[in-house]
Design brief:
The complex is a heterodimer of chains A (480) and B (151). With 480 residues, chain A is α/β, with parallel strands linked by helices. Chain A is built from 17 helices and six strands. With 151 residues, chain B is of the alpha/beta class. Helices cover 40% and strands 21% of the residues of chain B. The chains are: A alpha/beta (480), B alpha/beta (151). The interface between A and B is medium-sized, with 29 and 39 residues.
Chain lengths: 480, 151
């Protein structure tokens, strides 16, 4: 036991407090459990106490406690535990125990001694398949969204001049509108290629990005939509990983040649051919799904509203919410403005629920919550669902279903009233281009108020419960 | 201690604070009085922004709010404790009572200061240090305990 050696890397975005707290917590836990540890910190001053190749090679296990990239690919082939920096602080002992017990998963990457960044990055791999797929997908989505938002809002702005104002043959033609629409359209066209490029980039760094981008362009031009983009991204990334394995035996002196010449050339060729073959069936699936969803919206607006509302409020800005949102933006690209109206309504509602609740049930919220509630009027009105997270985080099991109910009500009413929202973001800022703007606001207000009252009554109940036990708690606080 | 980072005038204990806002207000006021920062509002803004990213509440009532803004002229540690617990979303869910604010100038080139601030964070991991700080009756004891972090 005394011979066990562990290396760890800690890091947080600000790099002032938590990085070092995790370092200390790990050291303390290591001492207690009688193991040797070396902790590398990624703080504001840069990397300190850097792990050498020798350190990593000699270590029996690796702990990564970081909310930022700490170059995890160095730890290929090592039993590794990867957690957030907060867990590094609070569960340091369990993390070390996991390594001692030999329960850590081995980093599934191949051996490589090269220091070439593109090269080693290929070996970046993750222990949990579902988690890594999610991570790759989110990397693509988060790079894609700014294009969608910027481009989409510009397109929506062009509609302010009239819905046909960008058409030179139409009587309402306006050159400013046409320019806005062209520029916005470029942003929109980049959506699928960027999605594919950054899924692949997450899997296989820069060589992956190149190949994914090309695959995404083929999907986009062929009409395979964002499903095609996702396929292209994963295909591109894994093609490069595979190529890396095949070219492993090449002499190291040719590494430069690999990343600048062989990866792009072979990768683009392979992915290009496969995507060209795939694009037709993918397009069929894509179109099938789109028409399925649009049929839904005519046939059963209530059910669609429930699904969209529940998805949007489920994790507020997380993957489930994004799935609904990305579908909405994809349908916007296809010219369907109905679907997005419900998604937007459902995304705007959760912060408004918390905002209204803090107004109507003021005394059951503390000052910090009341302030946050006030801010949430603004966040909600501008389609920033994340504003509700602090409220939901306190008691997710109760609060999230409440938010889901409110969002569903907003979405159902929006679908029933056939409201059209041509912009993918912006909340109430895009009201001038919304068809049925007043009804839309009413739908959202109703959903928000319904949610706010349920939430408020819940808060009231738990507040009254707290009152009873308060006496004991007070004593506890005095001691601290 | 001769260390510029903290000073007995930068410690205020057992204040009747009840909200996050009041805590930040007090920290900012002390910062301006002690010539650490030029504008209290900017300090408060900086502290709030960091709090929105993720809570700085740690454990057993300890919180390490930090900010790095233009208005901060020199790196400093400000210690405030409150007589009642304040909700802070802390990692262990307990209300906050002991605030060790780390103020860092925007252009902080001297890494020694950042390292000093980091040692304060490290210190809080140790339960006995947390207890000693929480039970400190006066400013001098707090000073001594903090100085121990640099030893």
């Amino acid at each position: 036991m005394a011979n066990i050696k562990i290396v760890a890397a800690t890091g947080c975005p600000t790099g002032i407090a938590h990085t070092f707290m995790a370092e200390e917590a790990l050291k303390k836990a290591a001492k207690k459990l009688g193991v040797e540890i070396k902790v590398e910190t990624h703080g504001q001053v840069g990397v300190e106490n850097e792990l050498t190749k020798g350190d990593i090679a000699k270590a029996d296990g690796v702990i990564i406690a970081a909310d930022k990239d700490v170059y995890a690919y160095r730890f290929h082939g090592k039993p590794t535990v990867e957690v957030t920096v907060a867990k590094g602080i609070h569960e340091a002992e369990q993390l070390i125990q996991t390594i001692i017990d030999g329960k850590a998963t081995v980093f599934k990457a191949k051996k490589s001694n090269t220091t070439e960044e593109d090269e080693t990055a290929l070996q970046k791999s993750n222990h949990s398949l579902a988690h890594s797929i999610y991570k790759h997908l989110m990397n693509g989505v988060s790079h894609m969204l700014p294009f969608v938002v910027g481009g989409g809002v510009l397109i929506a702005l062009s509609f302010l001049f009239g819905i046909h104002s960008a058409d030179p043959n139409h009587e309402s033609y306006n050159p400013i509108a046409a320019t806005l629409k062209d520029i916005g359209g470029l942003g929109f066209q980049m959506m699928v290629p960027i999605l594919a490029a950054f899924i692949a980039e997450s899997i296989a760094k820069r060589p992956g990005m190149v190949v994914g981008f090309i695959g995404g362009l083929i999907a986009s031009n062929g009409g395979a939509g964002f499903l095609g983009g996702i396929a292209a991204g994963f295909l591109g990334g894994f093609t490069i990983v595979l190529l890396g394995k095949l070219l492993e035996k090449m002499p190291k002196s040719l590494n430069g040649l690999k990343s600048i010449f062989l990866y792009p050339l072979i990768g683009i060729l392979l992915v290009g051919v496969i995507m060209t073959l795939l694009v037709e069936p993918m397009t069929a699936i894509n179109e099938g799904m789109m028409s399925f969803l649009s049929n839904f919206q005519n046939a059963n607006p209530v059910l669609l509203g429930v699904i969209v509302g529940a998805m949007s409020a489920f994790d507020m800005g997380g993957p489930v919410n994004k799935a609904a949102y990305v579908t909405g933006t994809a349908l916007l690209g296809e010219g369907n403005y109905y679907f997005m109206a419900g998604v937007s309504a459902a995304c705007i509602t959760p912060p408004l629920i918390t905002a209204f609740a803090t107004v109507f049930f003021k005394k059951y919220f503390n000052q910090a919550e009341r302030n946050a509630g006030g801010v949430n009027f603004i966040l909600g009105s501008t389609h920033i669902t994340e504003g509700a997270i602090p409220f939901a985080a306190k008691n997710p099991i109760v609060v999230i279903p409440i938010l889901m109910i409110g969002s569903s009500v907003s979405a159902i009413l929006t679908y029933i009233m056939n409201i059209e929202v041509p912009a993918p973001h912006g909340g109430f800022l895009v009201l001038p281009v919304v068809t049925g703007a007043i009804q839309w606001v009413i739908a959202i207000l109703i959903g928000s108020l319904v949610g706010a009252f349920i939430y408020g009554f819940y808060k009231k109940r738990s507040y009254l419960k707290d009152q009873q036990t308060k006496g004991e708690e007070k004593d506890g606080q005095q001691i601290v | 201690m001769g260390n510029k980072l903290f000073d007995i005038n930068q410690i205020t204990l057992k204040q009747p604070l009840i909200t996050q806002e009041e805590v930040f207000q007090l920290i900012a006021t002390i910062a301006v009085e002690q010539g650490i920062a030029s504008d209290p509002d900017e300090v408060i803004d900086g502290l709030l922004k960091r709090e929105q990213e993720s809570t700085t509440g740690f454990q057993d009532g300890f919180v390490i709010p930090h900010a790095q803004v233009d208005a901060i002229k020199r790196p400093a540690i400000i210690v405030v404790s409150s007589s009642v617990g304040i909700e802070w979303n802390a990692l262990d869910g307990k209300p906050a009572t002991f605030f060790i604010a780390l103020l860092i100038p925007k252009q902080e080139a001297g890494t020694t200061h950042i390292q000093a601030l980091a040692s304060i964070s490290r210190m809080l991991i140790h339960e006995e240090k947390r207890e000693a700080l929480a039970h400190a009756e006066n400013k001098t004891t707090v000073m001594e305990e903090l100085a121990g972090a640099f030893a």
